[in-house]
Sequence to fold (446 residues):
Amino acid sequence: MLTDSGIKKAIRDAKATGTDVWLTEAGARGEGRLCLRAGKKGASFYFRYAAPDGKQARLPIGSYETLGLKEARAKAGDLSRLYQSGVRDLHAFVAQQRAEQAAAIKAAVAQREKAERQAATGSLDALCTGYVAWLDAQGKQSAKDAKGVLDRCMAASPDLAKRPANDVSHKDIAAMLAKLVEAGKGRAAGKLRSYLHAAYRAALQAEGDPTIPAGLHGFELDKNPVALVAAKGLAKFNKARERVLTEAELKAFLSALDDRPGVQADTLHLLLLLGGQRVIQLLRAKPTDVDLDAGTVTLLDPKGARQQPRVHVVPVTAPAAVILKKYQEGAWCFSTHGRVPLRAETLTMLVADISAKLVKDKVSKEPFRLSDLRRTCETMLARMGISKDVRAQLLSHGIGGVQDRHYDKHDYLDEKRHALEAWAAKLESISSGKPASNVVPLHAGA
Fold:
């Protein structure tokens, strides 16, 4: 095994003899190995593996002086897991990743330059671009959806998109929304109105708020034209889903997860054990956010108008800890190869696949979605007697009023832990078909 003392000796020997000295970490065949080359100018780490053509290849990891042994070993571990997962040409894989990163940086620069050019003209398109950039900078989960909605709107109305934002009237907005409603896209019209209203409001605030980015300054607005477009009529298109899984469906869903071992199924299982936390927040969790000794995982909730994400501490019960212990090595808790977190779309597809099977097997009468799991958890928690206040704290919603921000500083950790322990027992009861002896209803007011 490589050691710092051994590496330093190799460096001294290399400098004394003028010959490179190679050191290699011990390991099993077929996993690849961390190795180090010590030379006159210092030492560098490599990951050695067998390339697809059978020849030995060494992928540079970094210098000893920059990385240190601990970080190099961690990087080698990531590469080993990637190699064992079936990626045999690591050089090509890394080159592709670097190319994608370079392309992403280039696209971001181009987008920023476009926003700066448009901001100079103060167009409606520039206003939308600046608003999306502001959402993205704050880490808002709505940024991606807002971009999609506003981009489609600007593409469908190019003349209006080019017009100065301060020259757009409420009649222009109403006409644009009417086209969507007539096309049977009432929900899209409602979302578009909401995003345009927020974009104008942010630009109006920016005139006197230096904390709002430059992309929302300089539009010389004196009113929000969207405010004059009635939202009440569009509300009928925004019907909230009410789909809740039955206990029989939840049992079948848990069984289906057990039949699909791996990080995706584990993530969904943990999502349920944690009471139905928001998927995006859970997927952003890193090993450093997990404290198994304290029995907690800390999530960040950027939802809503808050400038800084709310720290959301969720208790970890025994069955949840079993899952989390498996994912404490990479940069992210839930990732296919450790470099980027799982995408919510991946879990959405898995849930849709299981849902289709349950409908086919006549366990379910209608399909369900990933978002329905959160509603199912809260509904069942309410039936168990978990109070509305505790559910709100547990699921981090509806927390942001004056009372919560300034007066109620209780962290509710004990109440949340009690609720999740009862919930874990309930899930085990559903899964096994046996009554849960420790599911105790908590009556604290619904």
In short: The chain has three domains: 4-88, 99-237, 247-432.
